[in-house]
Amino acid sequence: MTTPITRVSIVEDHRATREGLIKLIRHVPELVCVGAYGNVEQAEQEIPQHLPDVVLMDINLAGGSGIKCVAKLKQAHPQVEFVMLTTYDDTDMIFSALRAGASGYLLKRAAPDELLAAITEVRKGGSPMSMEIARRVVSHFHEVRKPAGEIETLSKREREVLDHLSQGLAYKQIADQLGISANTVHNHLRKIYVKLRVQSGTEAVIKFLGH
Predict the structure, then answer these.
(1) pLDDT in tens, 167-203
(2) Is 59 helix (H, G, I), strand (E, B) or coil?
């Protein structure tokens, strides 16, 4: 069976970093770079024309905010997945990016293999994060310790689905682990979104981990 091609765009204003990412992607047969942009204006003009599967997005860009760029593009093109690639591990930055619609958040010092794995993971429905970022997210929720009334409304199976999702498993992998169909996983997630009052798997996982 032929491995599907994943179309990737890069939004990064540092030329050397941008060119390095292009070369990295071009070395993987299953990936193709369909655009690389140095500022927000270019990204907002070109990404809707090429509609990549995954966008690697820097936060601080020439001419504007990468987070605001994600929010605008995600609203218009919800099928596109965004992974923030940045030097910032600031908690406010992390949550702002996730609220804007990003599905992953990696530090630029991540190893090339980690970056390539993140592209594959987010394409399959996962939410890749650098280990430091995931720990910061969990620590934040442990500090605030909000009442877990919403979490308590979840069924045992829904908790199992969220537990597997929090480990970075794609929907099909979750289905295989639980012995159910991928469609059943989707149905559970729809119910989870309603109960937790969230709009994405990333938000659901964050609430779940903060329980």
Answers:
(1) 777 788 899 999 999 889 888 988 888 888 887 777 7
(2) coil
Give the torsion sign (CA, 122, 124, 126, 129): negative
Distance CA 88, CA 21 (A): 18
Residue 207, both tokens: 């609430």
| Helix pair angle (91-100, 66-76), 10° resolution | 20
**Is residue 69 pLDDT above 90, yes or no?**
yes
% of residues, the chain, pLDDT over 90: 48
CA distances from 155 to 81, 176, 184, 192, 202 (A): 29, 19, 14, 9, 19
CB atoms within 10 A of CB 131: 10
Residue type, 55: V
Closest CA to 14 of 56, 48, 69: 56
Residues 6 or more apart whose CB falls under 8 angstroms from that of 199 comprise: 193
**Cα gap 116→67, rounded to integer Å:** 21
Q: Characterize the bridge pairing of strands 6-11 and 31-37.
A: parallel
Per-residue pLDDT tens digits for 117-129 = 999 989 888 888 8
Distance CA 158, CA 152 (A): 11
Domain annotation for the chain: domains and CATH numbers: 6-138 (3.40.50.2300), 146-209 (1.10.10.10)
Extract the tokens encoding 24: 């990295």
